[in-house]
Design a protein that fits this description.
- The protein is α/β, with parallel strands linked by helices and about 280 residues long.
- The protein folds into two domains: about 140 residues, Oxidized Rhodanese, domain 1 (3-Layer(aba) Sandwich); about 110 residues, Oxidized Rhodanese, domain 1 (3-Layer(aba) Sandwich).
- Strand 4, helix 4 and strand 5 form a beta-alpha-beta unit.
- The longest helix has 12 residues.
- The radius of gyration is 18 Å and the shape is globular.
- It starts with a strand and ends in a 13-residue tail after the last helix.
- The relative contact order is 0.17.
Length: about 280
């Protein structure tokens, strides 16, 4: 069972196995249609497609950020449509350092499906290895997904102030409030520390050595227990890369504030901090 990361060669060895489900999550915030277009042009053989806006997000229920978390019922319907049941080994990938794929990885684990891994290096690693691709649209036979949510894994807006440790997963310039290309106001939630999700990746977009990631995470946690840490980003997507790194190095499961900065900054009455903490 693969629970965190998988390399391209191992995935290639298992292509075509009936209990393996591959999901392409390529997506661009700048052009929300381009990921699906790229999928149709070329994708890993057997891969089905999941769209960040239409599939991995839904109408606001637990949060009101830019990419709200679907209800457990909506997630179960999605996973069933993708062909995932309790016996499935799922592999997810994108072309953005695992940013979007990690969101689907986290959602499956949130629904108690542990056999899910992110392709290390993503689409670029598959291409670099010279492995085969398919074009067009592929679908799996529908399955019956029966997982249940783990509500303690999510933090809602009214719980943010009570968290012992908030970790902002955005880039340092956005955290410090020097720039804000997307959301209503620049800055960060007061008291949050910064651990950019991109710090988990090397120059090739692959995850760094486990020992390096573990050391950085433990330094960020300080004396706070890892499971008490709450991660956020712009909209509850890239923070999942940090949660994936955390699980991969054996530090367990943190919590996710899905609404993230897009929800927090939407109300000018909420406090905002800038600079370093």
């Amino acid at each position: 069972m693969y629970k965190t990361l998988i390399d391209a060669e191992t995935l290639a060895e298992n292509i075509g196995k009936p209990d393996w489900v591959i999901v392409d999550c390529r997506f661009s915030l700048a052009d929300t249609a381009v990921g699906y277009q790229n999928y149709q042009q070329a994708h890993i053989p057997g891969a089905v497609y999941a769209h960040l806006d239409n599939d991995l997000s839904s109408v606001p229920v637990t949060d009101h950020g830019r990419h709200p978390l679907p209800t457990p019922q909506r997630l179960a319907q999605l996973f069933s449509r993708l062909g995932i049941d309790e016996m499935s080994q799922v592999v997810v990938y994108d072309d953005a350092g695992g940013m979007v794929a990690s969101r689907l990885w986290w959602e499956l684990r949130y629904m108690r499906h542990e056999a899910v891994a992110v392709l290390d290096g993503g689409w670029q690693a598959w291409q670099s290895a010279g492995l085969p691709t398919h074009s067009g649209i592929e679908e799996n036979d529908p399955a019956q997904f029966t997982g249940r949510p783990q509500p303690k894994w999510i933090v809602t807006l009214d719980e943010v102030a009570d968290q012992p440790l908030l970790i902002d997963s955005r880039g340092p310039e956005r955290y410090r409030g020097e720039i804000e290309p997307i959301d209503a106001q620049p800055g960060h939630i007061p008291g949050a520390v910064n651990l950019p999700f991109a710090d988990q990746l090397d120059a090739n977009g692959r995850f760094r050595a486990a020992a390096e990631m573990k050391a950085a995470l433990k330094e960020t946690f300080g004396r706070i227990a890892p499971e008490a840490a709450t991660f956020y980003c712009g909209s509850g997507v890239s923070a999942c890369v940090n949660l994936l790194a955390m699980a991969h190095v054996g530090l367990g499961n943190g919590r996710l504030y899905v609404g993230s900065w897009s929800e927090w900054s939407s109300d000018p009455k909420r406090p905002i901090a800038t600079g370093e903490e």
